[in-house]
Amino acid sequence: MNRRRALAMALACSGLGAGCGSATRPGSGEREPPWRALADGLWVWDGANAEIDAHNAGHVAPTVALVRGPQALLIDPGPSARHAQRVRASLRARFGAEVVAIVNTHAHAENVLGNAAFADGIGAGRMRVWASAATRQAMQQRCPACLKSLTERVGAEAMAGTAIVLPTDTLAEGDALTLGGVRLRALRVEQGHTEGDLVLWWPEAGVLIAGGLVCDGRLPELAQGSLDGWLAALQRLAALQPRVVVGSRVTDAQGIVQTQRYLTTLRREVLAAMDAGRLAGERGLVPMDDWRHWAGHAERQGFNVQRAWRELEAVWMQAPSGAATSR
Q1: Which of 256, 253, 199 is nearest to 75 (CA)?
Q2: Backbone phi, then psi, for 304, in 5-degree steps?
Q3: Are 158 and 54 in contact (CB under 8 A)?
Q4: What is the DSSP letter of 93?
Q5: Which of 45, 98, 179, 254 could cysteine-pair with 63, CB 3.0–4.6 Å?
Q6: Which tens digit of pLDDT belongs to each residue from 55-77?
Q7: Are 46 and 36 in contact (CB under 8 A)?
Q8: Nearest in space to 238 (alpha carbons), one of 213, 265, 264
Q9: What is the pLDDT of residue 216?
Q10: Are 39 and 207 in contact (CB under 8 A)?
């Protein structure tokens, strides 16, 4: 049942104690984060449209900040303490704003490990971190392995000081986060990209913050998701007719269409392979060359096929011949 409550973050900087002045400043060799305006007071620091490597230090997902006067709500603080320290210092220097709360849209390392930069305020109870209940549980289960893996991929220096800091509070459908008169509504928590994808909607500005549910130019990842659940989620998101969509990068409603096209084709081609008597373990089973230019195709396409096959096998066995591919 929807709780229909507003979760206001009217926290004055003077009430945050030591958390207001403890951010590490960017190093002298690091340029100022290139914040880009999406709507009134909503800013994004774009991530690299690439796979995680030492060059991008894991910053492959957008970091979003809603700034209202001296306060900021940070959404997906990034892959490391170092990255989020730069975010924190930059928000103070450019906007005169302190981060008063954080949202984690889903439990992938490149989105959530930046929580570590705010451990001083979070641990002392002066700052709250919001996520779905499923995301918090998934972070408890997977973040130790994800931190180890990310460190191996980007290097120990980039991950220095990064520790696992879990969400403190949960958001569910019908909740809203309010800062300086802006109300971000929490929509249905989806099981698509992960077990608990949190979606925030700012209807007055037409801005949809969809986390990993919308991918454009970077191949979707089905590791913890559901193919049919993801397609159902995208149908609901498309019905909102958003002007701006923040997914794996910032796009518009066409980003939803592009993600739907990939997942729909994957579903159809996997079921067609079953109809043709192909075997799940065949190499290059469903190559989907139209997406070869998307980042991550070489790394994830084969895995996505196997994950989709496992999910769709029961669908295929229960359907009349050829019927399952009609979706």
Answers
A1: 199
A2: -60, -40
A3: yes
A4: H
A5: 45
A6: 999 999 999 999 999 999 999 99
A7: yes
A8: 213
A9: 92
A10: yes
DSSP secondary-structure letter at 190? B
SS3 152: helix
Q: Name the residue with tokens 């003077």.
A: 14
Alpha-carbon distance of 59 to 229, in angstroms, equals 27
Give the model confidence (pLDDT) of 132-159 as tens digits: 999 999 999 999 999 999 999 999 999 9
Crossing angle of the two packed helices 297-318 and 253-275, in degrees rounded to 10: 60
Q: What is the pTM of this model?
A: 0.89
In this structure, the chain runs to a length of 327
Bridge partners of 61, per DSSP, are none
**Burial letters for 102-128: b for 16+ Cβ neighbours within 10 Å, e otherwise?**
bbbbbbbbbbbbbbbbbbbbbeeebbb
Q: Cα(213)–Cα(248) distance, rounded to whole angstroms?
A: 8
Nearest-5° angle of CA 248, CA 254, CA 258? 65
Provide CB contacts within 8 A for 90, sequence distance 6+. Answer: 26, 32, 33, 35
Using the structure block, give the residue that is written with the tokens 């981060």: 99
Closest alpha carbon to 118 in 157, 150, 73: 73
45's enclosing H/E stretch is strand 42-45
**Chain-centroid distance, C-alpha 226:** 16
Please choose, from the candidates 161, 272, 138, the residue with its C-alpha nearest in 3D space to the C-alpha of residue 212: 138
Element (H, E) at 122: helix 119-123
Q: CA 92 to CA 85: how far, in whole Å?
A: 11
Ordered alpha helix ranges (H), 155-282? 227-238, 253-275
Six token digits for residue 196: 């608990």
Q: Quick one: 166 exposed, middle or buried, by C-beta within 10 A (0-12, 13-18, 19+)?
A: middle
User: Is 127:118 a contact under the CB 8 Å cutoff?
Assistant: yes
The set of residues, in sequence order, having a beta carbon less than 8 Å from that of 323 and lying 6+ positions away, is: none
Query: Strand, helix or coil at 13?
Result: helix
Does residue 161 register a pLDDT over 60? yes
313's enclosing H/E stretch is: helix 297-318
